[in-house]
Amino acid sequence: MEKLFTLYTYLFLCISYVLAQQSDPVLKPNLKYGKPTKEELSLITYAPDTTATAVCLLHQGKTYFTYNDFFKLHTEQVIRVKILKSQGTSYADVAIPYYSPTDTHKEADRIEKLDGASYNMENGKIVKTALTSDLISDERVDPNIKVLKFSLPAVKAGTVIEYRYMTTTSYIEIPNWFMQQEIPVVYNQYEVTIPLVYIFNIESRGSDLIKTDKKQTTMRASNYGPGGAGSADVFSVNCDQLTFTSENLPAIKQKEDYCWCPEDYKVQISFDMQGTNFPGQEYRPISKKWSDIEKRLMNIEYEPFGQLMAMTNPFREEAKRDFSSDMTTNQKIITAFKVLRKNLAWDGTYRLYGINPSKVLKEKRGSNADLNFVLISILKDFGFSAYPVVMSHRSAGILPINYPSIQKLNTFVVAVYDQDNKKYIYLDSSMEIPTLNVLPLELTVSQAYILGSPEAEEKKWVDLTKISNSAVFVTIEAAIEGTEIKGKRKSSFTGHQALEFQRRKLHKKESADSQENDKSVFSNTKIQNISDDLAQLEELTDFTIKTGTSGDRLYVNPMIFTHVDKNPFFQTERVLPVEFPYPYSFVVSSTLTIPEGYTVEELPQSQLIKNDNNDLQCRYMIEKAENQIRLNYLFSMKSYLFPVDKYKQIQDIWTKMIDKNKATIVLKKI
């Protein structure tokens, strides 16, 4: 629901943008392929968005069916882009993924009729440079997907590039059509002709920005009968033809901080097949369920997944040496992880499918999927029930619960069932440190599905953003001695905050006992686990910090160690919603003893800073009691996603928090 609210807010802003353009007409592209105009080639900047490095002048799509004994689905596309700045030349490098389980698979998709060219204006004339075969390549990226790549030639600032192609598939799944891109779109039109034997639920995201026309038509179909011999039985099939048109859409910014997948917010049209209604037959609903995908993936004969779930632990002897029956559940899981990572390294990629285990073992590295299959085999040897939890990682967008599709999946993590506490523990082989229930941020998604577990269907869906509580609790006891603050600090870290703390320690080259900078010295530092879960840590340290001085006054920050000192929300306007890595809290309780001979001349004011939903707030409470200053500071972020219309509030909250983090006490010598 929160994601939907954020989406609607963003679409409202898009509509406002489009309405603003109606009083300022922009370029009208030529809709004929291969005929960019001199006006298009002469374009230097795009008035509605002068920061744009390129602009999509034209994107046309046409999806239709053919029938020769069975249906096939064809989609033709034409794309024309004007390169405005040198940074925009990257749009001449094109990658088109398509389904291809094997190179000879009869049901593989095909990409046909590829054609393209670059157009430049030279001496007042349009010069065309055609795409040649040596600039085209085909690359397999996983067992089911290949990518057709090509680079259009002679591209520079000022060039117009144009290309077209057709995708043919036997799978009757119409993919989402995106009206919006990461660059502005002048004209986007999509036509789809659907035989009435197929019933689709069609939804548009940003319908106010899309003009829709509908009419009835027919398609020609042929039946050749068994073996394809003899004359064809030719007949017509009634169809609905829908045309969707959008003009002058703003860019979806791809590089705004605090947004994982801008594609989630694009204006688009989705097609979800509900059933079939063939002549002479009753209506048949399509029973597409996630359990069907589960059966396919977990099938023992399915080589890149189900078969790997049954692999034997390749490190059995080593695991036995490290395993002890008196270990706790957490200790056993962490031991299994350490056995894995001692032998295999993560190659930096996230995958859904595994490759041949012998290759992984030989090279001693692999994707998180390769390593997770091995981890599951080790955990099973330790007596655990371990399951893959499939997902779409955060940068690839949210996984749709109501639209089951194996193509939407791109990786998985591991769920281990804790028999003692009757709950699941989650981890992933890509992690440097085996913090339980604290996954890499890329894998901390709100919708993921457990495969193979005995749970009821509805309980197989898990929200991985809520499996851990991320917090920092800091207690400080300090006193001012001369021009220095000396004291003790105890910091407790849980969840993602514990993981980040450990990462900082791993990647810093510091002496074990003393850390120094120009204003502070830390000593007697001890780090210990609160429990056998590495996602709960405690740090104890002594510190000495210099105060600010001026004449007979001391300037002291009662926070001593600040929570925030920079405002990342410096943009005047925000295009996309604000998506933080995870919810968390930060609590400081500080007692500072004032030296004799000084009095408090100025004390910061207490303040409550919050947004209108109270899911983002900061309490700064300070008081003087006899010769002590007591500070209680609480920052709480209960949600990780905030709609774009709340951006000004977030910006204001951060500004005020920084002011409080920098606020000082002024002590005057008596």
Structural features, described:
The protein has 670 residues and is α+β, with helices and mostly antiparallel strands. It folds into 3 domains: 38-276, Immunoglobulin-like, CATH 2.60.40.3140; 290-459, C8orf32 fold (Roll); 471-506 and 518-669, Jelly Rolls (Sandwich). Helix content is 16%, strand content 40%. The chain has 10 helices and 37 strands. A 9-stranded mixed β-sheet has the order 25-26-27-24-23-31-35-34-33. Helix 6 (329-343) crosses helix 8.
Topology readout:
Blueprint: H1 2-21, H2 38-42, E1 54-68, E2 71-83, E3 93-99, E4 110-122, E5 125-130, E6 136-142, E7 145-151, E8 160-169, E9 177-178, E10 185-195, E11 198-205, E12 211-223, E13 233-249, E14 268-276, E15 284-285, H3 290-298, H4 306-309, H5 316-322, H6 329-343, E16 345-346, H7 357-363, E17 365-366, H8 368-381, E18 386-391, E19 411-418, E20 423-427, E21 448-450, E22 461-462, E23 471-481, E24 484-494, H9 496-507, E25 514-516, E26 520-529, E27 536-546, E28 548-550, E29 553-556, E30 578-579, E31 584-593, E32 598-602, E33 607-610, E34 616-625, E35 628-637, E36 641-642, H10 647-662, E37 665-669
Parallel strand pairs: 1-10, 1-12, 16-17, 23-31
Antiparallel strand pairs: 1-2, 2-8, 3-7, 4-5, 4-8, 6-7, 9-14, 10-13, 11-14, 12-13, 14-15, 18-19, 18-21, 19-20, 21-22, 23-24, 24-27, 25-26, 26-27, 28-29, 29-37, 30-36, 31-35, 32-37, 33-34, 34-35
